[in-house]
Amino acid sequence: MPYPLEKIRNFCIIAHIDHGKSTLADRLLQATGTVTDREMQDQLLDDMDLERERGITIKARAVSLRYKHSDGEIYQLNLIDTPGHVDFTYEVQRSLQACEGALLLVDAAQGVEAQTMANFLLAIDQNLEIVPVLNKIDLPAAMPDKVAAEVEESLGLSGESCIRASAKMGIGISDILGAIVDSVPAPKGNADEPLQALIFDAVYDDYRGIIVYFRVINGAIKRGDSIRLLRSQRSYEVTEVGRLTPKMNAEKAGLAAGEVGYFIAAIKNLSDVKVGDTITLDKNRGTPLPGFRELKPMVFAGLYPSGETTFDELREAVEKLQINDASFTFEPESGGALGHGFRCGYLGMLHLEICQERLEREFDLDLVTTAPNVPYQITTRGGEDVMITTPAEVPPEGFDQIREPVVELNVMIPSAFVGPVMQLATERRGEFKHQDYLGPERCVLTYHMPMAEVVYDLFDKLKSATSGYGTMDYDLNGFRESDLVKVDILVHHNPCEALAFICHRSVAERRGRAIVKNLREEIPRHLFEVALQAAIGAKVIARESVKAMRKDVTAKCYGGDVSRKRKLLEKQKKGKKRMKMIGSVEVPQAAFMAVLKANDE
């Protein structure tokens, strides 16, 4: 029998990175008897190898718990554990839409940090009930009273309502479970209405097709139902439906309004399933749900097959990855020396790194990634506004105006590090907006800064400048006109489009010089001199030369008149001159990769 609505609670755990979300999820699974002590392992829901190696959550995970409350009633608690890093905000947004409440975790030693604030605001936008929890109270550096005051001051939540807990030691777990039942409202919905269910995630299985994770808003779904996906207008018969406990646990009675679970319907066509789509019954159709706000990628990079990997293998892999990661986008492109590949869009540099590693590990691919860049808006000579994601899209005749994306950057730091952080922001073309204090020892600096300066390595530099205590969060704040230029890299006077880049005029010469210098080390010598140049339009800003190989044409001359040697050398000179005019140079893939790596460094 499906659970009655008033006995269901849907909630997620949100927090800044490394504040203990996955550890708290472990304790909730143990306290409710969902997993036995024998099955238990640390960060049980982080089942991806990458998550375990890096110690971070990448994918949101759903799990159903059965909890006996102090009033004697048994409740079904549907928990979604979410990532904390800014690059995975889309995972958090989707999870929040499947819930009615959220546990807001704050580290009792670190206090309120950038992503704490960002995720709190996302939850407020969804009208969720917030249950504040102070975690890690067992640490020697914990300051629960001070952090509770900080929560009240910066988030507007009552400091007294904060539950004191330690997920590692199991302190306060029963209080948290009680607060979920008492504070989080039961879901609204009607099991007798036509089926309306929201897809919030999916994963591809080689043997069973696409496994769809969904939340039932109205109606009910059971095995044997003929369902329709409203976006693709395709119908399927449900072969299995159930809850995640955290393993897939099939339910004969199916799932009804308010519940969270999975279904399998032998869906093999990758394009049929879209995160945010509405599921309804084929006969008694419901209306579409609002779905999710589409996120626009912030960083673009080319992805090309290398070694034994083929283009078709890469295409199949990126299609399967997109099902499981809706914020990853791709479209085909050709990269000259690199052959055919894809222009991929990511939410940030960590997202790019994770996607590349997942493709290499899960699909056993050998890949080359080109230098990442952000999208730009240009006004062409004809007055038309166009969005470009790669330097190759810049019109050959140039442009009237170019605008780069600017973000509003919030940096949370201890007050002692204000000077170094301000210097770092100024070097990155940041425009200071305001400074707020969360207490005597913590402050928030707000800047407007070009996204290109933020996404590459600002986070690493910030950690270095603040001894690891600084945290940051950013939101897109529109586009701003700037003095940007396209720098072309010419090999033997021919532009190498895949190495071109867009940057601010003030750093163009330095970056151009570094690339041609590295290229000189990698391009093999020819029988003629090869010129390597960095140019803005017709103006060359940096040049290096690969010297010609010289064949010893006088080796067979011994003795005799010196004019014989001169004649042979003159003939060689003319040959080299002719070869230089008609000779062509191809950039080998190994050289290309080395240049990209050097450019990244």
Write up what this structure looks like.
With about 600 residues, the chain is an alpha+beta fold. It folds into five domains: about 5-185, Rossmann fold; about 195-280, Translation factors (Elongation Factor Tu (Ef-tu), domain 3); about 300-370, Alpha-Beta Plaits; about 385-480, Alpha-Beta Plaits (2-Layer Sandwich), CATH 3.30.70.240; about 485-600, Elongation factor 4, C-terminal domain (Alpha-Beta Plaits), CATH 3.30.70.2570. Helices cover about 25% and strands about 30% of the residues. The protein is built from 14 helices and 31 strands. Strand 2 and strand 3 form a beta hairpin. Helix 12 (about 505-520) runs antiparallel to helix 14 (about 590-600).
Give keywords.
globular; Alpha-Beta Plaits; eight-stranded antiparallel sheet; alpha+beta; Rossmann fold; 5 domains; 27% helix; Elongation Factor Tu (Ef-tu), domain 3; 14 helices
Class of the largest domain, according to the CATH hierarchy? Alpha Beta
Biggest sheet overview:
8 strands, antiparallel
Within CATH, the superfamily of the largest domain carries the name P-loop containing nucleotide triphosphate hydrolases
Please name the CATH topology of the largest domain: Rossmann fold
Instruction: Count up the helices.
Output: 14
What overall form do the CA principal axes indicate? globular
Sequence of strands across the biggest β-sheet? 11-10-16-7-8-15-12-13
Helix coverage percent of residues? 25-40%
Number of structural domains: 5
Work out the strand percent: 25-35%
Query: Regions with pLDDT < 50 over 5+ consecutive residues?
Result: none
Overall mean confidence score, pLDDT: 80
What is the annotated CATH architecture of the largest domain? 3-Layer(aba) Sandwich
Q: Whole-Å distance between the termini?
A: 59 Å
